[in-house]
Amino acid sequence: MGTASDIKLIDENGLRVDGRSPTELRPIKIETDVLDRADGSAYIEWGGNKIMVAVYGPREAYPKHTQDIEKAIIKARYNMAAFSVDERKRPGPDRRSVEISKVISEALSNAVMVEQFPRAQIDVFIEVLQADAGTRIAGLTAASVALASAGIPMRDLVVGCTAGKIDGQIVLDLGKEEDNFGQADLPMGILSKSGKVVLMQMDGDLSVEEFDKATEMILDAIKRINEIQRQALAGKFISLALERGGE
Amino acid sequence: MAETKQIVMPGDLLDTSQGKPRNGTYKCGENEFCSSYFGIVQVSDQFLDVVPFSGPYYPRRGDKVIGKVIEVGPSMWIVDINSPYSTLLHMNDSPWRTQSGDLKKYLGPGDYVYAKVMSLNEIKESWITLKDVGLRKLEGGHITSVPAPKVPRIIGKGGSMVNMIKDATETRIVVGQNGLIWIDGTPENVMIAIKAVKMVENEAHTTGLTDRIQSYLKELKGE
What we know:
The complex is a heterodimer of chains A (247) and B (223). With 247 residues, chain A is α+β, with helices and mostly antiparallel strands. Chain A has a single domain (28-245), classed as 2-Layer Sandwich (Ribosomal Protein S5, domain 2), CATH 3.30.230.70. In chain A, 30% of the residues lie in helices and 28% in strands. Chain A has helices at 95-109, 135-149, 176-181, 208-245, and strands spanning 28-32, 40-46, 49-60, 73-80, 120-130, 158-166, 169-172, 184-191, 197-200, 203-204. In chain A, strand 6 (158-166) and strand 7 (169-172) form a beta hairpin. In chain B, 19% of the residues lie in helices and 32% in strands. Chain B folds into three domains: 7-52, CATH 2.40.50.100; 64-138, CATH 2.40.50.140; 142-220, K Homology domain, type 1 (Ribosomal Protein S8, Chain: A, domain 1, 2-Layer Sandwich), CATH 3.30.1370. Chain B has 223 residues and is α+β, with helices and mostly antiparallel strands. Chain B has helices at 151-155, 160-169, 187-202, 209-220, and strands at 7-8, 20-21, 25-29, 32-35, 39-44, 47-52, 64-72, 76-80, 87-90, 112-120, 126-129, 136-138, 142-145, 172-175, 180-184. Chain B contains four helices and 15 strands. Chain A binds chain B through residues 39-40, 57-60, 69, 111, 113, 117-120, 148-157, 191-194, 229-230, 233-234, 237-238, 240-241, 244-245, 247, and chain B through 1-4, 7, 9-12, 24, 26, 28, 34, 36-39, 52-56, 84-86, 122-124, 147, 149, 202-203, 205-206, 212.
């Protein structure tokens, strides 16, 4: 919620700067199995975000002192490419990406059946190639698809979405300008079936009513995003079967 | 005619009227069971399983697997069986009269063995043995791999699929439960066999596969 400004984020017709209505998502496209070396992978385009996710494991955890005798540990690494933002980002982990890696690891640990793999680790590499607001939830959404395609047992798929406040109004899925000049941003990660919240952060201020409205919007959008995740996973297998069905 | 079996995602509710939920499922409510994998639903006898499309191999006692020796210790070999955890082969479980310290003479790093999972414990440590009929060091030949959940498809009903590939390509094939496959024969025949195995892997979730593989093999051999 950077600088206060007099930029109008909502026009007189109630549309936003990119022409979306308050409850409209940016276009989302997910592709699975894009990397051969990884055990599972996914590529997501969410508005201007372009993110590649690779999953390795479960495999024995190293260094050995990080092993947990009861369950697997999920090591997510969120990393932004130097060219992913307007001004060159200094490469390497910084305070922000370490924090995002941590919250994503914890969100995914709630979905993956970690207790089946004592002493193991599951690596999730989230590489942001192009950033355009909402990269953490886009990365989380793609990561859960990549985990499922790696054949890792999960209780549920994790779906991420944001809502926020711009020009005093609650809207879904903030874009870059809205994120920079809006008043609040609320990213959430939710288990698609049970509706349990596994990730929630907030930047800026929301009243209780506004928060409730934002949550409601997110929960509604989760269904749409989950449908895209499912299409991405199943698509390849269904089309192969159709192709073969013609024989 | 190929039709797909029902595809499910993690967390999908399963229709338990078809059978008793078994592998790949978890209890997700009062008398409700959900899938824990992205895979297909398979109903056999009175059981309902979810078979994932991919994923690592989880050792089970009695499985016959192909492993690669990765390290030689004073009294054990450490063997990679394509699973999240490596496994151990103790010298007393080998068919040779080994003495502590001379294990390198029999198996070195990079050698493959066809072995049986002897025991495993709660923290997924496992031990394998070479002392049973048919178990041995695999000499020569090529190794290829498929995801472990697809092994039953490679073998086929009563070994029909693998036997068909064996006969058609005149190769010797050993399929490990862990997804590693050892193929021995002339280089051309081995390549044909690998292609056939890869086709089974890619189309494991469709039906009527045996017939298609048969015609594919004929095509590859130029008949």
